[in-house]
Amino acid sequence: MKEYWTSLASLLGVLAFCQSFLQTVFPPELRFAFLKLASKIFHWFSSYYYFDITEIDGVNTNELYNAVQLYLSAAVSVTCTRLSLTRALNSSAITFGLSINDCMVDTFNGVTVLWEHVVSQRQSQTFSWRPLPEEKRGFTLRIKKKDKFLILNSYLDFIMDKANDIRRRNQDRLLYTNSRGGSLDSRGHPWESVPFKHPSTFDTLAMDPKVKNEIMEDLQDFANGQSFYQKTGRAWKRGYLLYGPPGTGKSSMIAAMANFLGYDIYDLELTEVHTNSELRKLLMKTSSKSIIVIEDIDCSINLTNRKKKGGGDASGGAAMRTYYDSPEMRGVSGEEGGGNSITLSGLLNFTDGLWSCCGSERIFVFTTNHIEKLDPALLRSGRMDMHIFMSHCSFPALKILLKNYLGFEEGNLDEEIAKKFEEVLDKAGMTPADVSEALIKNRRYKDKAVRELLEVLKVKAEKNKKSNAGSAEEEEEEQEKRALESPKVEGCGFEEDNSCKKGGDEDQKQDDEKIEK
């Protein structure tokens, strides 16, 4: 045993001597060149490429690192046995990740790649204005040489798009509103936000299923239409106008659109915007994949129809001059120089001008109770591409409400009662909000709720019938009065004509007498 330790000590002494000899004979520069040459020879005969994606690029965060981390979290929970769990700010889901120095295999278009999560200690730092983390994190991507161009051209873009989808799906949607008086928050943003928790979806929305399917298909085509909009040279945006009586579900439709697409909502309060310049700045601070909403636009600022403003003036030019010279068009509302000064031109440029191209994948939604009050320039295609009429409650919408509030499935409603509902719904003209309120009162007792709703609809239909009959009688009476008054007016006109004629004959006789004399 003693001889064994003696031999080991001698061997270690020889190795130490060789190391010191090599360091003396071969300087550090030569050793570095030798290692570099050996690495090149190794990579020359190797069939793989290696790409490092570090967490921090200089002093900035590497977005590709975050995208890879999110992308791998979708598959890592299935393939790996050791995981790291994280939950981001404003996120409703837990994210899985690769553990330290762990590996996983991914496949893209039939090509297999290997990802490794590399974590090492960072060397001690000297003085720095921005201290770096103690650990140096990154991902190493290993691919075959023959697949290099396929991976670099397509795979990384695919990872970025997939990560954006995962981030939007996991992150809670936000509801924004512009700050009062155009003030900025602590971060210098003109928008204030709260989590958006509205539960409305297209499944619970009370309206005709055919119309809902058309809207959903249009929204899906828009969300997947980046290449189409680029090919046609159009800005990647779309406008929807929701109009109809109050209580028909316009706000619920906006919430359903946001939940369907996973977009944030920017609720723009025009009365708090003072100038067109502020309006453009608000647009610039909105994010992509968002819905910009202006509710009750006919009540926000004066954007009424220019043709109606002209009144009964026979000359169109005079009417137009009157409108353009009006305080509303110049941007003065209320007292001279006070209030906001948003013009129709500014709002049109906001929705369809050059500034509307700042960002992409945006939806503009305007709501109004009186579409006839809006200027035609605001309603044309390219600004409001799709006009959606939110009507009174129809029978298909009623079936959805019965399912939502009472749990009625297709076929649960008695056929005789269903026929009565069909007969009375159109005559009653009740909004989905009124029908919902009638159902909420008795939601614990289904049969009672159905009977009372039917009675309410009948009473409403009878009331509408009487009011319509009364208005018809009043109109007939007015027509009779006009018929009785019209002969008198004609007679007066006839007598005036005769008097004028008599006066003309007398003048003619006097002229003749003068000529004879």
Question: Keywords, please?
Answer:
517 residues; seven-stranded mixed sheet; four-stranded antiparallel sheet; alpha/beta
What does this molecule look like?
The chain has 517 residues and is of the alpha/beta class. The protein contains 18 helices and 15 strands. The strands form 4 sheets. It has a 7-stranded mixed sheet. Strand 4 and strand 5 form a beta hairpin. The protein is elongated and about 135 Å long. The chain starts with a helix and ends with a helix.
Number of helices: 18
Low-confidence stretches: 311-338, 488-503
Can you count the beta strands?
Answer: 15
Cα shape: elongated
Q: Helical proportion?
A: 40-55%
| First and last CA, distance | 173 Å
Largest sheet: 7 strands, mixed
Structural class: alpha/beta
Radius of gyration: 38 Å
How much strand content do the residues show? 15-25%
Mean pLDDT across residues: 78
Strand order of the largest sheet: 10-9-12-13-14-11-15
